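Objective 1b: paired records.
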Amino acid sequence: MMKKLALQIIKFGIVGVIAFIIDYSILFILTDFFSVYYLLSAAISFTISTIFNYFCSMCWVFEGKKNIKKRNELMIFIFLSVIGLGINQVMMLILVEQIKIFYMISKIIATCVVMIWNFITRKLFLEDHKKRRICTNE
């Protein structure tokens, strides 16, 4: 059981690092090269990385519930991600505007908190705790 959880955390970390690179890069490019307001850039970059994260997470990291349709699984994932986006935005706003931390550093801090939210909520609400399912496009 602990070995399975450790492997799952490693896989989640790999997907998370790639999603973070996507998120962080898009945030930087939109803000610094296209002068998009950092909170709008953060929302756009978060959304794009979440799409990547959904496909990788549900096929490779989490054992999706058999009794749930893909559309419903996606809706739950999106709902949980929207809450994660809210956490991200509030943290960035506070860290940048109130505490005066550079927005790229603030993004790293916010991402760490959202990462914990994502792992716990996806494990609770999206994973089949009974047995392993092979990823299909049901």
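Objective 1b, second protein:
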Amino acid sequence: MEPPYLFDHYDPSRGAGVDVGLDVDSSVLTLAVHGTWGNRLCHDTHTAVRKCLSEHPATLLIDLQALADPRAASVPTWMTARRLGVPMRPPVEVMVCVPEDSPLAGRLHRLGAQRYLPMYHTMSRARAAAAEQMPLTSRLEMQLAPEDGAAAAARAVVTNACAAWRLSELQDRARLVTSELVLNAVEHAATPITMVLSRRGDGLHLAVGDGSPRLPQLLDGFPALPDGAPPRRGSGLHVVHAAATLWGAMPTREGKVVWATVRPWTRR
């Protein structure tokens, strides 16, 4: 898989599929699986889980209430999701919501999965448990108005955070990414903006939420840059694609969030 990792709203008319949404305030990402478990839905879910984990949420809550799985064949998928989340730094808490009387819940209990995969029978209980998780220790949130000075204010926060968190080598790239995400929200959404900045191990995670449900598009036509040359500000999402390690977008209750992770350079 290559970024951007984009999730659109689930369309029930298309049959089986996944629906992904992020709560920016709590950093809880919900993945709901719809339809009858089979090869196609298995593939789509595996892909969605990996995309979700790339966003590095505090919690990945997997909602299986709308999943029909009479043979409980999906069990390895949820085990794998948990296994992938544990070694991340910081770890991603993976939990599932599964109806109590379903074959899937029965098999998970027989396997003893509840010892290491938190299981809840209602989404209200699952969300309450997610809210009790330890918050990220290095996290800043700010509200921005959709106006000309928004990007400059966001860049200043990034500069201060990189200094405080000793991530100075990421500062220039993080400022570029922040500028483009905020400017895009100002120009294309024109709604109040929420920016969340978090330290994720040796990297920096940026999330910019706005009130528009329209997901961004990476258009063709960005000119090639010499090796090592920094991307130019004002080139839209191509700057984000060039400067960020990973990036993507997904729906929220209010609209959408576009996120990016900036880590020390490695070859993608």
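The longest strand covers residues 28-36. The first helix runs from residue 39 to 54.
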